[in-house]
Design a protein that fits this description.
Elements lengths: L5 H10 L4 H21 L12 H10 L4 H4 L6 H11 L3 H8 L9 H5 L5 H10 L1 E2 L2 E2 L2 H12 L4 H22 L9 H4 L9
Antiparallel strand pairs: 1-2
Helix pairs in contact: 1-3, 2-3, 2-8, 3-6, 3-8, 5-6, 8-10, 9-10
């Protein structure tokens, strides 16, 4: 598995001219994801199968790598980001980036057993961060509908279906965590990532 280091992720953010606000969002998503993975690794969670922390961090830091490029509407940032990560020979990170908006599959049986792959952790962490603020899923849902539905009932329904899955994932995930979803903002490490 080829996983970029934090410094390599920061260099890619520079290379793809990630805007400062998108970079800050990515940092908070990475801290949320890191908090969740470390909690899954606690001794009392011996039944849980946590993903590789380095992979989760790289996926979280790079999940919006193509957002700046796609702001003009010329591309879909998840798909474009997946291509960028694949081009740099990070196929596992590419899969996470490609599915951070909508998961291609949802495996409730695995989640019940405490198995949460990296893509699920990054997908969930991204849904909890509006700009740079950790918010409940309901607030993030309202924001996404307001900004991305274009007033379309069909798109709104698709967004709601995606969030219904995210709520279900949250319920499974927090069955293995020593804190509640409402407490997430209080337990996330606020230390910023240092520039390279």
């Amino acid at each position: 598995m080829n996983i970029p280091s934090i410094n390599q992720c920061l260099a890619l953010m520079d290379r793809y001219e990630m805007l400062a606000n998108i970079r800050e969002h990515s940092f908070i998503v990475a801290r949320v994801a890191e908090t969740i993975v470390k909690a899954l690794q606690l001794p009392e969670n011996e039944g849980a199968a946590s993903p590789d922390l380095d992979l989760v961090m790289a996926g979280a830091l790079l999940h919006d790598i193509a957002k700046t490029k796609c702001l003009d509407g010329s591309c879909q940032h998840a798909e474009e980001g997946m291509l960028i990560c694949a081009e740099h020979d990070y196929p596992e990170v590419a899969t996470i980036v490609g599915q951070h908006v909508i998961l291609n599959s949802f495996n409730a049986d695995d989640y019940r057993r405490g198995c949460f792959p990296a893509r699920e952790i990054v997908y969930y962490a991204d849904k909890r961060v509006r700009h740079t603020e950790i918010v409940p899923l309901s607030q993030r849902l309202d924001y996404i509908i307001d900004h991305y539905s274009g007033g379309s009932d069909r798109i709104t329904r698709r967004i709601r279906q995606n969030f219904d899955r995210c709520v279900e994932l949250e319920n499974y995930l927090f069955g293995f965590l020593p804190f509640e979803p409402a407490d997430l903002a209080e337990v996330v490490d606020p230390t910023p990532f240092s520039d390279h």
